[in-house]
Amino acid sequence: MIAGAVFAALIAAAPAQADNWYPHPSDAQWQYEWTDSTYNTAGTIEDVTVGSENDPSGCGWTLQWSAPSASLTGLPDSGTACFADQDFGVVNTDWTSTPPPADMPILCATVSGCPNSLASALYNVIWGSRSPVLSEPLLQGTTWSSTGGASNEVTSTSSYLGLELVKVPAFPSGVVAAAVRSQIALGGTFGDDYGSGTRTTWWVYGVGPVKVEFDHVDGSVSDVSLLQTNLTPMPALPDQNYFPLTQGLAGTYKWTNSKHLRQPEIEKVSIDAVSNRSARIDVKSVSGPIRVVGSYGFTARLDGVRNIFGSTSAASLAKFPSLGHGRHFFTPIDLMTYGFNPLLPAYPVPGSSWKSGDPRDFKIYGVSGTTALVGVRWVRVPAGRFRALEIRSVLKQPGHPFGSGVRTMWFAQGRGLVKLVFQHRDGSTSVIELIR
Q1: What is the CATH classification number for the domain harbouring 428?
Q2: How many Cα atoms sit within 13 Å of 26 on the Cβ side?
Q3: Residue 330: closest CA among 276, 260, 394
Q4: N or C: which end of the chain has fewer CB within 10 A?
Q5: Which tens digit of pLDDT belongs to each residue from 221-251?
Q6: Is residue 297 in some structural domain?
Q7: Low-confidence ranges of the chain (pLDDT < 70)
Q8: Model pTM score
Q9: What CATH number does residue 120 fall under?
Q10: In whole angstroms, what is the distance from residue 247 CA to residue 280 CA?
């Protein structure tokens, strides 16, 4: 039997979602002190409040700051910054402020009218990383690229380092924070060596940024610390990455079915392209009765890990029962994504569940059902023993018992899918295992 299956289901952008890595209720207040070892040794204390939760100009929600009394630099110090919550994190959309001290480096290619500045606490947070300021979901192994400055002349590569206990005046006993380290580069300006360097920012869930350390290339060090706030820290979200979109990550899987695929099908799966928290996963047969090549797209956003496209070309000697909506099972990825999105929630909390209901998914698969995160447990496969997140789905495709049943999947931190068992309603069972 020769067959092929091609589909493209580009998912429209999900509505913007806010979470509490950078909360902004109308009454929120923060007070920061920022210093610089060369240009602001005395330090400046700034009060930050929410200017608007929905700015009428369309720039998003705004934060505004000012020195509570005369700035310790002897100069006026006030400004605003606009932010927007997107499904991929927080972005900075605009800013305005009083000019920086005249002796600070010029961060533009021309001296006059330069809008770039590092002379405030919030400027140290957004410098080089306006889009996004913080990429989400914030999971282990997460890295991203961003730009900043008035003309995107600042670039950065950021990495999530993990959860750390950090002490600042607002939380003298320490608070659990997500540490993000950014390598920042500025070129073509008078202040390249000051605008470039390594910045570490600590984010507290329920509060926002509480500390910044910026080691500039010129040897200067800028520090920002949260002095006080009326916000209360919340428990950090689980940061285990059970579906890492990591360039070069690969695995080989064995697939059998008790009735329809008794000769094992062996296929290699690899992540061959990654950009902006999206990835292309390629599949190629190694041995067995199916000859297949395929490519699939996935994206990780605040609405979860989603399959956004897929295509396969296959020649198969295996005879499977038919599926509705022109679907076919040719690869482990086909069985893993079959049904409805998301594949995983953004932050996988055991006990959570979700149902089918997206009309786009139903148009593609014609499947209804529910999925639940059962918990984390040990699972053994030929590739080894893994502590894995167990996810169970009850799927129904009317008129097609092979496309209906109970599918249980196990995902390991930093590795992805390690095992899948699909108990089809036709009485057969598909088993997929990571073998290397």
Answers
A1: 2.50.20
A2: 4
A3: 260
A4: N
A5: 999 999 999 999 999 899 999 999 999 999 9
A6: yes
A7: 1-18, 69-74
A8: 0.91
A9: 2.40.360
A10: 9
What is the per-residue pLDDT for 73?
61
403: CB partners within 8 A, 6+ apart: 323, 324, 327, 338, 367, 395, 397, 424
**How far does CA 414 lie from the centroid of its chain?**
14
The length of the chain in residues reads 436
- 180 and 250 inside one domain: no
Please name the residue that has the structure tokens 């940061």: 239
Instruction: Count how many domains the chain has.
Output: 2
- Work out the end-to-end distance of the chain between its first and last CA atoms, rounded to an integer number of angstroms: 29
What does the alpha-carbon distance between residue 352 and residue 372 come to, in Å, rounded to a whole number?
6
Is 314 among the domain residues?
A: yes
For residue 342, cis peptide bond before it (omega within 30 degrees of 0): yes
Q: Please tell me the predicted confidence (pLDDT) of residue 53.
A: 85
Give exposure, 268-289, as e/b (b: 16+ Cβ within 10 Å).
ebebeebeebbbbbbbebeebb
171 and 247 in a single domain? The answer is no
Per-residue model confidence (pLDDT) at position 146: 95
Per-residue pLDDT at 70: 52
Do 9 and 33 fall within a single domain? Answer: no
Same domain, 194 and 88: yes
On whether residue 236 sits in a domain, the answer given is no
DSSP state of 100: P
In which element (H, E) is residue 359 found? helix 359-365
Q: Which of 183, 201, 229 is the last residue of a domain?
A: 229
Tell which of 173, 208, 229 closes a domain. 229
Helix (H, G, I), strand (E, B) or coil at 352: coil
Q: How far is CA 14 from the centre of its chain?
A: 14
**Would you state the structure tokens that stand for residue 194, as one six-digit string?**
């000051």
- Which domain does 74 fall in, by range? 29-229
Q: Which two tokens stand for residue 51?
A: 């200017």
Q: Both 306 and 220 in a single domain?
A: no
In a domain, residue 84? The reply is yes
pLDDT number for residue 205: 97
Question: According to the model, what pLDDT value does residue 71 have?
Answer: 58
Contacts of 291 (CB under 8 A, 6+ apart): 285, 314, 315, 316
